[in-house]
C-alpha cells in the first residue's frame, strides 16, 4: 500500500447509519416533519464507505443524493425507519443521526381531511418508538458500538450525558444547534463526543470533516 493510498480501516465491517427527518402522516397529503437536512448522516455514511465498510443508510425524506457505494433504504415514518433498521442488522457499529419525529398522529386519516365549515381539526399525537434506545437495549445482536446524536440548544453536555444514560448507547455526539452556533441544516457542525470515559470538544467543522473524524474514532474503537 502506497503512502498516498487512503486509509481503509473499516474493510470487512458493517456499519448502519440513520439520517434525515421522518415524515409522520396526518392524511394522504399532509405530514409532520422537522428541519433535518440529512447532511450529517449522509456524510457519515459516505465516510464509512470510503473507509471500506459495508454501509446501510436508512434515510428519511431528504434532498441529498444517495452516497456512492452505500446501500440506501428510503423510508418515511419513524415506524418504517425502525423496521428498516431491524432488517439491516447485524452491524459492527450503528450511528443514529436521524431526527426521528418524537410523535405521530394517532389516527392518520385515510382520505384528505376537508374543511367542514366549522371547527379546525384536532390532532392527537402518540409517541413514536425510540429506535436508538431499542437497538441499544437489544440483548441479542446488539451492534458492538452504538452511537446516538443529540441536537440541543442549551446545556448541551448535561443533556447529552443524560441521554447516554437514558438510552443505553455507547457514545453520544452532542450537537450544538443554538442559533449562534449550529442551526440545523447548515454546512458545519459544532459537536462534543460524549463517552463513558469523558467528553471531547471538537472545533466547529465542516460536516464532512465531522464525519471523517467520527469514522476514524469508530475504526479505532472496533480495532481488535
Ligand atoms: N432517536 C431515535 N428514535 C426516536 C427519537 C430519537 O432513534 N424516536 C435517536 C436520534 O436518532 C438520536 C438520539 O435518539 O440519535 C437522540 O435524539 P433526540 O431527539 O436528541 O432525543 P430524545 O430522546 O427524542 O429527546 P428530546 O427530543 O426530548 O430532546
Ligand atoms: Ca427527539
TrEMBL record:
Binds 1 FMN per subunit. Pathway: Cofactor biosynthesis; coenzyme A biosynthesis; CoA from (R)-pantothenate: step 2/5; Cofactor biosynthesis; coenzyme A biosynthesis; CoA from (R)-pantothenate: step 3/5. Coiled coil: none annotated. Its cofactor is FMN; Mg(2+). Its EC number is 4.1.1.36, 6.3.2.5. CTP binds at residues 102, 112, 129-132, 149, 163, 167. In the N-terminal section; belongs to the HFCD (homo-oligomeric flavin containing Cys decarboxylase) superfamily. In the C-terminal section; belongs to the PPC synthetase family. This is Coenzyme A biosynthesis bifunctional protein CoaBC. The gene is coaBC. The chain holds residues 212 to 435 of 435 of the full protein.
Amino acid at each position: 500500500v502506497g503512502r498516498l493510498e487512503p486509509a481503509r480501516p473499516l474493510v470487512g465491517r458493517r456499519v448502519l447509519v440513520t439520517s434525515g427527518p421522518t415524515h409522520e402522516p396526518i392524511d394522504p397529503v399532509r405530514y409532520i416533519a422537522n428541519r433535518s437536512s440529512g447532511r450529517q448522516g449522509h456524510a457519515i455514511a459516505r465516510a464509512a464507505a470510503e473507509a471500506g465498510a459495508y454501509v446501510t443508510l436508512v434515510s428519511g425524506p431528504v434532498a441529498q443524493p444517495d452516497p456512492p457505494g452505500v446501500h440506501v433504504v428510503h423510508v418515511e415514518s419513524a415506524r418504517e425507519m425502525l423496521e428498516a433498521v431491524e432488517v439491516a442488522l447485524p452491524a459492527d457499529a450503528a450511528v443514529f443521526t436521524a431526527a426521528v419525529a418524537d410523535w405521530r398522529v394517532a389516527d392518520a386519516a385515510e382520505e384528505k381531511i376537508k374543511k367542514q365549515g366549522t371547527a379546525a381539526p384536532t390532532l392527537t399525537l402518540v409517541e413514536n418508538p425510540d429506535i436508538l434506545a431499542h437497538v441499544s437495549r437489544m440483548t441479542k445482536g446488539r451492534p458492538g458500538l452504538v452511537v446516538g446524536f443529540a441536537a440541543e440548544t442549551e446545556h448541551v453536555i448535561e443533556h447529552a450525558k443524560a441521554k447516554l444514560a437514558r438510552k443505553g448507547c455507547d457514545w453520544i455526539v452532542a450537537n450544538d444547534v443554538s442559533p449562534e452556533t449550529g442551526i440545523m441544516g447548515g454546512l458545519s457542525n459544532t459537536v462534543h463526543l460524549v463517552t463513558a470515559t469523558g467528553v471531547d470538544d471538537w472545533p466547529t467543522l465542516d460536516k464532512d470533516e465531522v464525519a471523517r473524524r467520527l469514522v476514524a474514532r469508530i475504526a479505532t474503537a472496533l480495532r481488535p
